[in-house]
Amino acid sequence: MKKTLKILIAGGGTSGHISPALAVIGELREMANADFEPQFLYIGSHGGLENQIIPAHDIPLVNIETGKLRRYLSAENLRDLFRVPVGTKQALRIIKDFAPDVVFSTGGYVAVPAVWAAKLRGVPILMHEQTVQIGLANRLIAPFATRIALSFESARAELSPAAQKKAFVSGNPVRTSILNGNAEKAKKWCGFDPNNTHLQTLYITGGSQGSQRINHAILEILQPLLEQCQVIHQCGKQNSETEDYDLLKAAAEKLPPHLRDRYFVTPFIRDELADVFALSDLVLGRSGAGTVAELCLLGKPALYIPLVPTGGDEQTRNAQMCEKTGAAEILTQNELSPQKLLQSLKVLLSNPPKLEKMAQAALQLAKPNAAQTLAEMLAEMGNKKV
Asked: Does domain 177-365 have CATH number 3.40.640.10?
C-alpha cells in the first residue's frame, strides 16, 4: 500500500528562507515512487514573499498571523507580540486538520508560531539554519526542534549544549534549476556577440529587490568597466519614482555602439539564471545565504558587498567565511565608491589564475547533496515519528 508522507513546511519573509524549502520539496518529489508519496502544506505570513512564489510550484499555502522579530526597540514590538499567540493558535488548528507526519522549518518569523504549535501537537520538527550564525527566529525555535540542520559548522557554537547534540551539518539546499546552464544560450538572451570568446563576463546582482548602492556605483563606472568585460546586470525593482532600471538603460543607450552591445540590464532573471551563471567569470553582489550557497556549488568567484545592517550582520559573516577560504573578496558597504569598485573589479578580472583558484576554493565549501540529505531526514523522521 502506498504510504503518504505529510510534510508541513514553515518559513518565509525572504527568498533565503523559501528557496531551501523549494529545493527539498523538489528532492522529495523526485523520491516519490510506487510505495511513497509526499504531500505538502506550506505555512506563510500575510503579505510575505512566499505568497508570490509557493503557489506557482503547485504547493498549497495557508497564512497565519505573526509578528516581526526585531533586535531593536520599536513600538511595533508590543503590537507584534500579541500576534504570535494568535498565529500559534491558528497553526494549532492547521496542524490538527492537516495531521502532518513531520514539520520542516526554514526560519523567518512565520516559523516561530508554527514550530511552537507543532511541539504542542507532538509532531517531530526539523529546523534548518541557512547562514553561518543562528538567526533570531531559529534561536527561539531550536529548543523545540527534534533535529537541527546547519549549513555551516561554525553555527553550532551558537547553539546551547542541549541543542548542539541535536545538530548536524547538511549544507544549504540549492535549486537544481541553476545547474547545467548553457553559456551560449545566455549570450543569445543578452544579445552578446557569440564569436567574442575572449571577453570575460561579469554578473551583477543585488537580489530580488536589487541594490541601489551597487546600481548607482555601476552607473558611474559603466563605460570604463565595459572596456574590460561584458556585463549582465540584474538591477531589481525598487519602489521609487525613478527606477534604477530606467537610469541604467538610459546610460547604456549613450555608450559607444561597441560597448553598448556588451551590457545587458534587466530587473529580474528567472529561468535564464542557470545560463547566466554558466557564462559568468565573476559575480558581484550581496552575500545572503542563498547566493553564497549557489556560488559555492557552481564554483563561481565573487566580490561580495555585504548588506549592513541585517539581523546579526550575517551577510558579513557569510562573506568573511568565503574570504577566509579564498573563494571571494569583500568590499564593505562603507568602502563602496564607484572608483573603489571599479579598481576591485579590474584587479580581479585581470588575473584569471586567481579567479580559477577562487573558483576551486568555492567548490570546497559546497555541499552538493544538501537537499537530498534533508529530504531523507524528513522521510526518516516522518516514518519514525520520533
From this structure: no
